[in-house]
Amino acid sequence: MTRLDARALGYVGRVTEPVPITTSLDGIMKSLRGTDRVQIGGVFGKWDAAVGPTVAAHVRPVRLDQGVLTVEADDSAWATQVKFLTGTITARLVEVAKVQVERIDVRVARPR
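Below the sequence we write its predicted structure tokens.
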């Protein structure tokens, strides 16, 4: 691993200059899941704005992994609705959160 590669991954073992913690976290997250904190923060932080308050009240993002967003609906009817709205939700996430999602997987939450 070259010094430049080490810095890009946030590795600080032999790098003599300080590396910002955000760079380290980005490198770790990217190497583990292929998704950086900006993408995750965009989806989770701007979910309500992207989907609107009505959908957000019944559907929440639970995971973003390598372009696949998993959402959880509180009812099967809402899960079906999200499947129909996938194209719109994907476009809104790009517009509002600047995040490109390749696929949305929908699941129904277990009753508590």
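The radius of gyration is 17 Å.
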